[in-house]
């Protein structure tokens, strides 16, 4: 065969064969099976294909990693290029404004040198020069009028009074109605009214039920605002875009003329703002002579002079790691390196500390806050129930810890508990309902209480320093317990299981609930409160069954001794009565297989004691009166039947037999019921004592035909 080649030659040939365009897997396997000498050849060929597959996978991983690194580097370069383009655009705008200002200054100087030329220019176009000198009175009147107009307009805008503090230099330049469109889908969003002031642009939305009134929407400083003309593309026309890093908005004017006015007045106002800001900075940079202190005759004034306040420490933002911080945060978020992102934020907060907040620091904070919102959204998605719920509560620790470090402990707690609630609900829903109820309850309790215990331990680990979140966990545990009880009751009580099965199921649930005490969490009172209604219903239902069965036996009572036929049956009955606590039952057994008691009384004794034992397994204080009243009702049915039979029976032998059964009830059964109830509950039952005392047999005249009870 052609397979026994060297590993290198065989591997290269195999690679070429698999990479060929006409490769057919079925034909290849068929040919290989025909050429192989046995199982060993096929195993060797399989190993070569497996090695080739692993080599290909490693090569793909290396290529993907290399391409991913190149993508990250390219994204960083694009970000650098975008910032440089923004800077270049602002520089060109400033240069244009400076050149126009210089031109206006030269024209103004020429008009001063040649008044006749200035008069001719003013007569030709009185609006051509906005810098014509005004008298002091006219300038003051103009300034006051513009501020009055601004105040009047802004009174119609709700929510902007605190955002626009009154300053003597602020005035309204232009305003008008616009329609905002979505930047991605070009769908109309809302009608707005824009107010352009000499230093900012205010956007307000229309109030639908109030004509001429607006609500504050956004405020943009002119320094960071870029205006872009949007070409007409019918039906989308008369639009322009405003860029405010990192967002943009598109507005539509009423017609082309108003659009042109908006573009021109925005650019003109931006230039004037840049020029006035530059002049202000130049004036502040000029050295000023300190004014001489006023002469005073008070010699103590010099002593009262205070030292000037120390200068605020400036923040150096030229460090390389600060310049690259926004991009590094983007990379960490893209690579899901949440710890690295939060470490960078902590490093920045530690560096800035309590230093002075300048405009560059605000701009940096704005960029970083946007990344913080993105990081928070990613962490919130990691904890959402839509994500995979596998891995248990520890799988959420990473996202929860980073949210806590970001100062969002409340949100982290809420999302963690929602995630765990969804996990518990899914686990309960995925349980298979077995034929045996007790087996299903064992699985249900194991799944639920194990999940609850793991959640509690993880919660204690994650939120150890946030004691305020523990109340939220208690509320969540109560709702989770309600979910468990719904599934429990549906399987145990709604399906009408026997009282013994229900008692075993409740016992299992209580035992699992006690496991939570290992971490100091006791939810027993919650499970009692949630189950009390269903257990009351089960006790009353079983009580009704016993009463109905007892009445049915009473109706067929013949007052005859029991004949068990065989010694084995008699021994079995003795054992059953002994297990019920009737230690004196042997005195009621006769020769052979006879029992000196009625079948009705024996059946009633076994059924009543079984009910009491199962009810005590279900017992907790809220069920005390329900259990006691049920016992009294059951016992009264038997006692009243015996008393009635004594009064009505005329035959002496049967009457003596009835009195013997009554003695067994009053002197043996009722004391055992009282004792067992007191042992199970922890306190005596006065109602049972009163019932026994009131029903005590009175001695009667043997020759009398009636009996008194």
What descriptors fit this protein?
eight-stranded mixed sheet; disordered N terminus; 9% strand; 709 residues; cytoplasm; Exocyst complex component 8; two-stranded antiparallel sheet; PH-domain like; 3 domains; small GTPase binding; alpha+beta; disordered C terminus
Please state the CA-atom Rg, rounded to the nearest Å.
47 Å
SS content category: alpha+beta
Order of strands across the widest beta sheet?
1-5-4-3-2-8-7-6
Poorly predicted sequence stretches spanning 5 or more consecutive residues: 1-7, 126-137, 299-311, 697-709
Rounded average pLDDT: 78
| Tally of separate domains | 3
Count of helices? Answer: 22
Instruction: Give the beta-strand count.
Output: 10
Helix content: 55-70%
- Share in β-strands: 5-15%
Distance between the termini: 109 Å
Main β-sheet description: 8 strands, mixed
Shape, please?
elongated
Family: Belongs to the EXO84 family.
GO molecular function, one term: phosphatidylinositol binding
InterPro entries: Cullin_repeat-like_dom_sf, Exo84, Exo84_C, Exo84_C_1, Exo84_C_2, PH-like_dom_sf, PH_domain
Domain PH: 171-271
């Amino acid at each position: 065969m052609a397979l026994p080649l060297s590993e290198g030659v065989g591997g290269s040939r195999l690679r070429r064969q698999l990479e060929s365009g006409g490769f057919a897997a079925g034909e290849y396997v068929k040919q290989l099976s025909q050429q192989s000498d046995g199982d060993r050849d096929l195993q060797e060929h399989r190993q070569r294909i497996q090695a080739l597959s692993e080599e290909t996978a490693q090569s793909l991983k290396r290529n993907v990693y290399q391409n991913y690194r190149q993508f990250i580097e390219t994204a960083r370069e694009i970000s650098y290029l975008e910032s440089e383009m923004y800077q270049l655009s602002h520089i060109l705008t400033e240069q244009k404004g400076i050149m126009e200002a210089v031109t206006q200054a030269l024209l103004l100087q020429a008009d001063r040198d040649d008044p006749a030329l200035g008069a001719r220019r003013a007569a030709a176009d009185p609006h051509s020069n906005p810098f014509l000198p005004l008298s002091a009175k006219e300038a003051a009147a103009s300034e006051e009028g513009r501020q009055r107009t601004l105040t009047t307009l802004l009174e119609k805008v709700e929510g902007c009074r605190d955002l626009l503090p009154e300053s003597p230099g602020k005035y309204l330049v232009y305003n008008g109605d616009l329609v905002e469109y979505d930047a991605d889908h070009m769908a109309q969003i809302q009608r707005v009214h824009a107010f352009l002031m000499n230093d900012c642009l205010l956007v307000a939305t229309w109030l639908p039920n109030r004509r001429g009134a607006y609500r504050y929407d956004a405020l943009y400083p002119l320094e960071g605002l870029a205006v872009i003309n949007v070409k007409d593309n019918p039906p989308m026309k008369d639009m322009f875009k405003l860029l405010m890093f990192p967002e943009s908005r598109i507005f539509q004017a009423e017609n082309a003329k108003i659009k042109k006015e908006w573009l021109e007045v925005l650019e003109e106002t931006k230039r004037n703002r840049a020029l006035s800001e530059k002049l202000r900075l130049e004036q502040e940079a000029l050295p000023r002579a300190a004014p001489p202190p006023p002469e005073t005759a008070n010699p103590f004034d010099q002593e009262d002079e205070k030292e000037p306040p120390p200068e605020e420490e400036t923040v150096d933002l030229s460090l390389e790691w600060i310049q690259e911080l926004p991009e590094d945060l983007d990379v960490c978020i893209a690579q899901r390196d949440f710890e690295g992102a939060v470490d960078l934020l902590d490093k920045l907060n530690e560096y800035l500390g309590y230093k002075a907040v300048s405009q560059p620091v605000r701009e940096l904070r704005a960029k970083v806050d946007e990344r913080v919102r993105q990081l928070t959204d990613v962490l919130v998605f990691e904890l959402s129930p839509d994500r995979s719920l596998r891995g248990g509560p520890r799988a959420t620790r990473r996202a929860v810890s980073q949210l806590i470090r970001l100062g969002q402990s409340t949100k982290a707690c809420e999302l963690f508990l929602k995630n765990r609630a969804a996990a518990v609900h899914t686990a309960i829903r995925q349980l298979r309902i077995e034929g045996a109820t007790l087996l299903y309850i064992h699985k249900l309790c194991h799944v639920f209480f194990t999940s609850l215990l793991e959640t509690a331990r993880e919660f204690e680990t994650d939120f150890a320093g946030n004691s305020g979140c523990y109340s939220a966990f208690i509320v969540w545990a109560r709702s989770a317990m309600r979910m468990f009880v719904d599934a429990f009751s549906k399987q145990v009580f709604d399906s009408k299981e026997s009282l013994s099965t229900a008692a075993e199921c409740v016992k299992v649930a209580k035992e699992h609930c006690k496991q939570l005490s290992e971490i100091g969490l006791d939810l027993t009172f919650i499970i009692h409160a949630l189950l009390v209604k269903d257990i009351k219903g089960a006790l009353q239902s079983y009580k009704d069954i016993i009463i109905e069965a007892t009445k049915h036996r009473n109706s067929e009572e013949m007052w005859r001794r029991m004949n068990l036929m065989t010694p084995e049956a008699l021994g079995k009955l003795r054992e059953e009565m002994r297990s019920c606590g009737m230690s004196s039952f042997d005195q009621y057994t006769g020769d052979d297989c006879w029992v000196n008691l009625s079948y009705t009384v024996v059946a009633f004794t076994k059924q009543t004691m079984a009910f009491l034992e199962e009810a005590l397994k279900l017992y907790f204080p809220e069920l005390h009166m329900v259990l006691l009243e049920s016992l009294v009702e059951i016992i009264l049915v038997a006692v009243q039947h015996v008393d009635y039979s004594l009064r009505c029976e005329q035959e002496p032998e049967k009457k003596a037999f009835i009195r013997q059964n009554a003695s067994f009830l009053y002197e043996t059964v009722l004391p055992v019921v009282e004792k067992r109830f007191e042992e199970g509950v922890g306190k005596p039952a006065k109602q049972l004592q009163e019932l026994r005392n009131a029903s005590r047999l009175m001695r009667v005249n043997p020759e009398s035909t009636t009996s008194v009870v």
